[in-house]
Amino acid sequence: MTPVTRTIHLRDLTLGYERHPAVHHLSLQITPGALVAVVGPNGAGKSTLIKALAGVLTPLSGHIEGLQREHIAWLPQHSELDASFPIDVRGMVATGLWREVGALGRFTTAHRQRCDAALAAVGLSGFEARGLDTLSGGQLQRARFARLILQDAPVVLLDEPFAAVDQRTTADLLALMHGWQSQGRTVIAVLHDIAQVREHFPQTLLLAREPVAWGATAEVLTDANWARAQSLHEPFDERAGECEAGAPGAGPRHPHPITTALEATP
Ligand SMILES: Nc1ncnc2c1ncn2[C@@H]1O[C@H](COP(=O)(O)OP(=O)(O)OP(=O)(O)O)[C@@H](O)[C@H]1O
């Protein structure tokens, strides 16, 4: 695994679509090996942030530093696309090796063995030749985690990885995630299950189009911070223009200071 030697810095980051901001003025730093949850109301900008970290959404303003695309493994929100793709389980999982194998590279016996080992690690031995469309939702999510294993990236981005997944599968995938962290990887996950966040994630970012609180999970997930997240989120205008101080719907620049429960040390 390529070690990450750099801290991830988000500097006054504003993200959006066609100049309409969805996340405003986010500044924080994430140290290598951190296990970070991103939470907030629906539409708070969590997936938008993950897409920007993954490098598929260019910031409207501000900067992301310390992240390179080849250092990232990204699990987007569960999509029907994976399931409908006419490919078998091993073939889908093997796409996790594309950086190594490349478009013209040869898929060797060693690659095949690594695919099968990754499938074994997620409890899918024996499923190698099955079509993706024959898998249950939980089995498909296990296969997507097997692909992440093969990507072998120092930074793992997970967007609602346990949505619509049963308890047993969630427990197995959480164990894998903890294993990644103990190997020194940074894991950043969008989650809705707050009990799960409290139990498994030492650090949390509470987002409501702008950062509400960031730091130690117990200090971030307070009733007061949730109330503030709701109150900040509700007045936002979906069609707000560019992010300007005082612009209607754009959100004033830092109307409240971000609650920083701790500086971002693991
Ligand atoms: N491709 C897009 N084009 C235009 N607007 C978008 C696009 N994707 C997201 N948005 C808008 O950006 C805002 C933030 O969306 P985002 O998906 O990041 O929220 P979220 O916090 O992940 O929500 P949820 O918890 O419901 O998944 C929303 O208002 C959404 O409508």
Question: Mind explaining what this structure looks like?
Answer:
- InterPro entries: AAA+_ATPase, ABC_transporter-like_ATP-bd, ABC_transporter-like_CS, Metal_Ion_Import_ABC, P-loop_NTPase.
- GO terms for molecular function: ATP binding.
- By secondary structure, this protein is of the alpha/beta class.
- The protein has one domain (8-260): Rossmann fold.
- It is 34% helix and 22% strand.
- It has ten helices and ten strands.
- A hairpin with a 2-residue loop joins strand 1 and strand 2.
- Mean pLDDT is 86; it is low at 245-256 and 262-266.
- Adenosine-5'-triphosphate binds next to helix 1.
CATH superfamily: P-loop containing nucleotide triphosphate hydrolases
- What top-tier CATH class fits best? Alpha Beta
Biggest pleated-sheet summary: 7 strands, mixed
Q: Please tell me what the overall shape is.
A: globular
CATH topology: Rossmann fold
Topology readout:
Elements lengths: L7 E10 L2 E11 L4 E5 L6 H9 L6 E5 L6 E4 L4 H5 L4 H6 L3 H4 L7 H13 L15 H15 L3 E5 L7 H16 L3 E5 L3 H7 L2 E5 L3 E6 H4 L2 H11 L25 E2 L6
Parallel strand pairs: 3-7, 3-8, 5-6, 6-7, 9-10
Antiparallel strand pairs: 1-2, 1-4, 8-9
Helix pairs in contact: 5-6
